[in-house]
Fold this protein.
Amino acid sequence: MAERTEAEKLGAALKPRERTFVREYLVDLCGTKAAIRAGYSEKSAASQASRLLRKPEIRAYRDALLQEQFDAIGITKHSIAAEVWKLYERCTQQRPVKIWDSQKHDYVFAGLWEFDVKGALKALDMLRQMLPEMGKDEDGGGPSLEDMVMGGTSGREF
């Protein structure tokens, strides 16, 4: 008999509707919609989602399922950080500013260069949040894989 995965062990401790909620939550990361799809009433879906996502056992099950999905396709915290660095490099590449020359009927170089400042700063902020956690083991705390993918913690739970 095959050994149960961590997600299966954590899921066994939950009620069936809670397990369904977590699986539905991972579809689109929207707690309200997940609660509705899991069978909670539309009227109370947002509050149910918020309540469920605050429960440590729900969060642990969600993280275990998410980790399984990431493992299946080879995503690690380090690969996410590498992709964010590539994004930073792309955002800092200079592009010439061109303006329309009505006499030449074409765009011409304006003598200025631009780059994506907001994108570069966002990428650096994401790296700042990720890098201190890279040396820790998987049980060492720090941001969850979901938080890293979503660009940090926004405080929004549902």
The chain has two domains: 1-74, 75-150.
